[in-house]
Design brief:
Blueprint lengths: L1 H32 L9 H33 L1
């Protein structure tokens, strides 16, 4: 069971790192495309999607950490 949670934790950390990279890429993309008039209506939705994705990953990391603590307590 512990091995499963360690694997899940590694996967979550990789996904969280990808989320951070995607947010930075989207911010750079938003700055670049902000000069064009056609993209100005879409940019707030891109930022909202990136923000929601980052919040989702943060919640996953918190729950994974919580369950890791619970497993550690049960081992003792």
């Amino acid at each position: 069971m512990v091995k499963l949670f360690k694997i899940i934790e590694k996967i979550v950390w990789v996904i969280a790192a990808l989320a951070i990279v995607l947010v930075v890429i989207m911010m750079v993309y938003g700055i670049i495309t902000n000069t064009q008039q056609g993209w100005q209506k879409v940019i707030p939705y891109l930022y909202l999607a990136a923000f929601l994705f980052a919040i989702y990953k943060a919640v996953v990391i918190i729950f994974t950490s919580f369950y890791k603590i619970q497993i550690t307590k049960r081992k003792k």
